Amino acid sequence: MKIHYLQHVPFEGPAMIETWATGGGHRLSATHLYRGEPLPAVDEIDMLVVMGGPMSVHDEGVFPWLRREKQFIEATIAGDKIVLGICLGAQLIAQGLGAKVYVNRLKEIGWFAVELTPEGATSAIGQVLPQRFDAFHWHGETFGVPTGAVHLARSEACASQAFLYRDRVLGLQCHLEVTKTSVEQLCEHGAADLVAGPFVQPVATMLTDDGQFSRSNKLMVRVLDQLALSDP
Description:
This protein is α/β, with parallel strands linked by helices.
């Protein structure tokens, strides 16, 4: 399978998704949008992964490449490709499907529980996830669930944690792909986000339990394997 990912900043890469892709014999390529790199043709890829980033989907005036990225995401969905969006990536997909992206009532940064909705639990993705699990979060905005999509999951701080559209397009507000190294990079470059709040953890708390990363990555593998099954 030909997998292409879109990266918005140097410090938010694919993390363990790269390990899964290369270990599974898939071809992995990337567009680093912050470098001005070109996008591929839609028919050159089988799966698109849209990573996170500190900017907003509404920041086209600051990051002009967001406009062509949005067009590419919409074309990829229309081309019936597998699409996975994480955090900002999920918000870009949601907006492309007609949903609103807006400031969440609370910042959510750190390890917090996510639970499946009743509808989500019976979906193809929900069936490979536990009813409740801890996931890493780093966001201040969120998305509405697009019309026609399954609302997969929620957390105490954020009602929209995941959605699934046509079984091939998945948006995850949370990060199942993170490694300890990638979270260390987030903490370094996103230190200004670490303001006091009920769902903002200290850096030491985020990094103290190596088992959290391992458990989360195992869930990411299950999700990626399930998405890959829909490749014709």
